[in-house]
Design a protein that fits this description.
alpha/beta; Glutamine Phosphoribosylpyrophosphate, subunit 1, domain 1; Rossmann fold; 3 domains; 6-stranded antiparallel β-sheet
């Protein structure tokens, strides 16, 4: 629910460094438009930018616990939502803890004081937090189980600098925008390595981990991992259990003192969440749930299906679902001019601190969240990670990809020449690509990831492989999309809440055999069965359709026109990275890429444009030797 930043230095008093810490927090102002706070004493400085979703009157941060003599004992700053804060407050109150408000940061601080470094195991929800223990002179950084909320850091010789986003680190004079060979490999990777950063020296706290920073050094502890358990429930019991767990997750994610809306594309994931949320609001005596979808002008009328990515346009299904569920629905309609605005593309880059090949998908998502904030929606339910949990991606069950010797999605992307070494890299200099070996980088990451997968004795080869694919999707594919969704939403002060990331739901469905998740060959049949009574048949059985991308020629021409300007500018920052032959071929194509099959080819041009802007705006120091 905010942006957090801080600095610990065991060799100096940071009190005079308040301006630096404020600059770090200011870089995160978009994450917290409702207020700011800081705490600086001795070796530690913590700062906070607030998005006020709970306890507007008493929920300011950093939260400080003082002794009876008035001396600080511990200080905490939190980004996210502790979805079980009500239950924890009740338990802690029974143990003698006293609260001044009803916010979740105060509860998290009391939980730390009660249970110490093991307290993250008591927390549910989406969160990244920092606790400075004044008594022990020790910093504890914590990240939620699936990495919904970002938390990065930079180790110094005498401590650590941390923040919600790399831009907060780069606001500190000790952190420079240096990118070496490994950073460039990570930038073009098909899936990110957990804990890695692109800028040299920057790292991320691993999902499900804590990091302790003391004067002698740092330590890391894993407090959660996906458990392998036997599944003995029948199909009927499994469906009932999924319905209960998902309902409980939605109820927990609706907790707020502000309006929580719902993203509704008309697909099974968002429709299931919206239907459950609307039912719970009605049972609590609330008004109609507000739902939102995104659409492009003329998209549905001129839609061209893609066999594996987008079979149908969203708009008709979103309208049908909204009418059936009874939401107050708003379609956010975007035109070519909005999608082609260069400044919005720059804003999308800044929101992620890195270039992206997704172009119009990034821009439309950014504009969507801007519209939500303008509509008075500071928090929204989203179907993120449903496909990873319920095996919704076609490559999860397509044997040609699911049984490959690399990540299944990488196997799929390598079927496209323009994405063979990584989506968006086909215009990068071939010699450089060969030297950096993007493919082997991804494949080694795959081999390393396989060693983590929990096993069950007696599993057959097919079930074992299904478990591996689900594990890889949850720990290597999902984090990239969760990070993108967080950055785009928080760029406009909107907290995205993904109930499908709920721990109890993820742990249960992870252990459901593949054949129960896909009965009679229907993708996500388990989820569909769990909400069958809530949705119209057309929505309930709609095949998966990925987030929409522009198909019209006008947008493709916009991309190629801008790409041409950059490619012909020998002084452009990106010029040394371009492959001359591939660039000439792209510029000499008869027409700009458009239609349902254009996104992969267009991605390389989009990536070049973003790379050029990134190198210039962030003053990136490339050191590839």
């Amino acid at each position: 629910m905010s942006g957090i930043a801080g600095w610990v230095d065991f060799e100096r008093d940071l009190t005079p460094e308040a301006p630096t810490v404020r600059e770090m927090a200011a870089a995160l102002a978009h994450r917290g438009p409702d207020g700011s706070g800081e705490w600086i004493e001795g070796h530690a400085a913590l700062a906070h930018r607030r998005l006020a979703l709970l306890d507007p009157e008493h929920g300011a941060q950093p939260a400080v616990m003082e002794s009876e003599a008035g001396h600080p004992v511990a200080v905490l700053t939190l980004d996210g939502a502790i979805t079980n804060h009500t239950e924890l407050r009740r338990e802690l109150a029974a143990k003698g803890h006293r609260f001044t408000g009803h916010g979740d940061a105060e509860v998290a601080l009391h939980a730390y004081l009660e249970w110490g470094a093991g307290f993250p195991e008591r927390l549910e929800g989406l969160f990244a937090l920092a606790v400075w223990d004044v008594r022990r002179q020790e910093l504890l950084l914590v990240r939620d189980r699936l990495g919904v909320k970002p938390l990065c850091y930079f180790l110094t010789p005498a401590g650590v600098i941390f923040g919600s986003e790399p831009k907060a680190l780069l606001a500190h004079p000790a952190v420079r925008p240096v990118v070496d060979a490994d950073g460039l490999r990570e930038l073009f990777a098909h899936s990110r390595k957990p804990g890695t950063g692109v800028f040299r020296g920057t790292r991320e706290v691993l999902p499900g981990h804590t990091m302790t920073v003391r004067a002698p050094g740092t330590g890391h502890r894993r407090y959660w991992s996906l458990p392998a358990r036997p599944h003995t429930d029948s199909l009927e019991t499994t469906v009932t259990t999924v319905r209960r767990l998902l309902s409980e997750a939605v109820a927990a994610h609706l907790r707020a003192d502000v309006t929580v809306g719902a993203m509704l594309s008309g697909g099974i994931d968002s429709s299931a969440l919206t239907a459950l949320a609307a039912r719970q609001r009605r049972s609590a005596g609330g008004g109609a749930l507000r739902s939102f979808s995104v659409n492009f002008a003329g998209y549905a009328e001129n839609f061209e299906p893609h066999p594996t990515m987008r079979a149908t346009p969203d708009a008709p299904y979103a309208a049908l679902a909204a009418e059936h569920i009874g939401t107050e629905h708003t379609e956010i309609l975007l035109d070519s001019a909005a999608l082609a605005d260069p400044q919005t593309h720059v804003a999308a880059l800044r929101s992620q601190d890195l270039p992206s090949p997704l172009g119009d998908m990034d821009v439309s998502l950014l504009l969507f969240f801007e519209a939500l904030r303008s509509a008075g929606i500071p928090a929204v339910l989203s179907g993120e990670t449903a496909d990873e949990v319920f095996n919704g991606y076609f490559w999860a069950y397509d044997a040609g990809h699911s049984n490959s010797t690399t990540f299944p999605w990488v196997s799929f992307e390598r079927g496209h020449d323009a994405a063979a070494g990584g989506l968006g890299c086909s215009l990068v200099d071939r010699t450089l690509r060969k030297e950096l070996d993007f493919m082997e980088y991804a494949d080694q990451h795959y081999r390393d990831a396989l060693t983590e997968v929990p096993r069950l004795a007696g599993e057959g080869p097919a079930e074992r492989r299904a478990r591996e694919v689900t594990y890889l999707a949850l720990t290597r594919w999902a984090p990239t999309h969760l990070d993108r969704a967080d950055r785009m939403s928080m760029a406009h002060g909107v907290q995205l809440r993904p109930p499908f990331c709920d721990r109890a739901l993820v742990e249960y469905v992870y252990n459901v055999p593949a054949e129960l998740k896909r009965v009679n060959g229907q993708e996500k049949s388990l989820l569909r069965a769990a909400v069958a009574d809530l949705l119209p048949e057309r929505v309930l059985n709609r095949p998966k359709s990925a987030y929409p991308t522009v198909q019209e020629a006008a947008y493709g021409e916009f991309v190629r026109y801008r790409f041409g300007d950059v490619a012909e500018d020998r002084s452009a920052p990106v010029a040394p990275l371009l492959d001359a032959e591939a660039t000439r071929a792209a510029l000499g194509a008869a027409a700009a890429p458009s239609g349902a099959f254009a996104w992969v080819e267009r991605a390389s041009m989009e990536m070049v444009l973003q790379l050029n802007t990134w190198l210039a705006e962030y003053r990136v120091d490339l050191r590839l030797q």
